[in-house]
Fold each of these.
Amino acid sequence: MSDDSLKEQIENWMVGQMPIIQMHGGTSVVREANPETGEVVVELGGTCSGCGISNVTATNIKADLIRDFEDVRDVTVKVPSTGDQGSSTVEGGRGGELQFSNESAEHF
């Protein structure tokens, strides 16, 4: 499986999750999906930043991606601490150019 096809599959999966995330004003973007290592990086933005349940959302995304995709072994979900997000969004509320500002392990 190529890197792009796994990333595309995960992006499509995330679009399916957007009614929940988007309902709260959140956005997401898949930053990395490596089929060789099984590593996936998803970044949440919009109102996910500072949201009291963003840790629950992140935990659910991690568990569901590992369960639903055979090639996925490790998932990192990042949420910006500033609430900043890029100006572009795409179908389903996925964010275009989110830039996280908190990469600490304690954030999630």
Amino acid sequence: MREQPWSDDAVRHGRILVLSDNPISRSIAAIASTAGRTVVVEPADDGGPGLDVQPGDAVVLCDHDAPDAPAALRAALASEASYVAMMASRGRAAGLLAELEEEGVDTARLHVPAGLDLGGKGPGEIALSVVAEVVAESYGRSGGPMRG
């Protein structure tokens, strides 16, 4: 009997909550859905009705210029989300991190910039790196190469 490299056992994972609607967030939804994850995209760039973060959810802020970005990050970091990330240049991230830290927000578990360093530049490639990081984190892995 040949051994299969995958498992048919159902594994429960939290949702991937994405703020706001843009080409990267739509690509995250497509890739993560294909990987069996439930994705919720909040299209309103002001946070809309709120992301309603549940324990184990992953939160990805895809628009660092969204009017409600600081509030969305504050709420996600205060929640039981298993992963909190933001798409941003290192410069933009530094300013927002400084603002949050001045307020006393613990940003130690914030992944910024979001995703693994795959080198991709297009929305689909960036989304792939983010989904890969979410999956790696959900299994307690680093996301490095599998070869020994």
